[in-house]
Amino acid sequence: MAGSYETVIWEVQDGVGRLTLNRPDTLNAWTAEFGAELKQVVEDDAAAPAVRAVLVTGAGRGFSSGADLKAGFDPHPDDGMPDVRKELHDVYHPVIAGIRRLEKPVVAAVNGPAVGIGCSLALACDLVLAAESAFFGLAFVNIGLMPDGGSTLFVPAAVGKTRAFEMALLGERVPAPKALEWGLVNFVHADDRLLEEAEGLAARLAAGPTRSYASSKKALNNMIYPNLDEQLALEAELQHELARTGDFTEGVSAFVDKRQPAFTGA
């Protein structure tokens, strides 16, 4: 059984729903269409009783490189500036919150870069496996923004205050071995073994006690992420304001031009 989508691939076999992010030419960067299709899969397809566990991975060389900056942002009707608040609420949050609330285990197989909202997506999953060559990063600061997609909640919950600030303020890559040491991921495998290992884990979960998993997930969510909706809303408000700064404009221009940004704090 497979769904028909343009930017993702959805397949179900033996109780495992496999979601492949499928914009490989952009390292699976997010657009509005991409987000809408992810939302459809998470809220509808993955929720079907026949699906007992979900596996998320990326096509090509990456897991997800974050938002597609070259695709641009829809303008806000009041000031013509990027309507980041609406985009986060409509495109990103339903996927992130949907994975957390899905009453079945979700496994991420991070096969390459997981950056920005791509990092948030990976960390929203219940168990995270990474290829040896994969890396994680909250690169938002490099374009004058702040972490979003729930990563200001997921990252400190996984790695603590010191490393969370390091990731958020420095925006540097965290290679898979360091991500394992820090507690960002559960397992690291050789690149050519990652998918086989992830599929085996997803199959194990699909054969397990699904109601037990659902109850554990609900209780752990309540303990670790009780303020998920509030944190997503706070991120959206702060990010919306940052998208109106000169530093953001400069950051995006520098990214597109492949040069170092000259931030001024304006």
Model description:
This protein has 266 residues and is an alpha/beta fold. The protein has helices at residues 32-45, 84-101, 117-124, 151-159, 161-170, 176-182, 194-206, 210-224, 228-242, 246-257; strands spanning 8-13, 16-21, 53-58, 106-110, 113-115, 127-131, 135-137, 174-175, 187-189. Strands 1-2-3-4-6-9 form a 6-stranded mixed beta sheet, sandwiched between helices. Helix 1 (32-45) links the parallel strand 2 and strand 3. The chain starts with 7 loop residues before the first strand and ends in a 9-residue tail after the last helix. The mean pLDDT is 95.
Key attributes of the depicted protein:
266 residues, alpha/beta, six-stranded mixed beta sheet, globular
Q: What is the compact description of this entry?
A:
This protein is an alpha/beta fold and 266 residues long.
Strand residue percentage: 5-15%
Main sheet specs: 6 strands, mixed
Share of residues in helices: 40-55%
Written as H for each helix and E for each strand, in order along the chain, the element string is EEHEHEEHEEHHEHEHHHH
Order of strands, widest sheet: 1-2-3-4-6-9
Low-confidence stretches: none
What is the count of helical runs?
A: 10
The gyration radius over C-alpha positions equals: 18 Å
The geometry reads as: globular
Count the strands? 9
Average the pLDDT over all residues and give the rounded result. Answer: 95
Question: What would you call the structural class?
Answer: alpha/beta
The separation of the N and C termini measures 52 Å
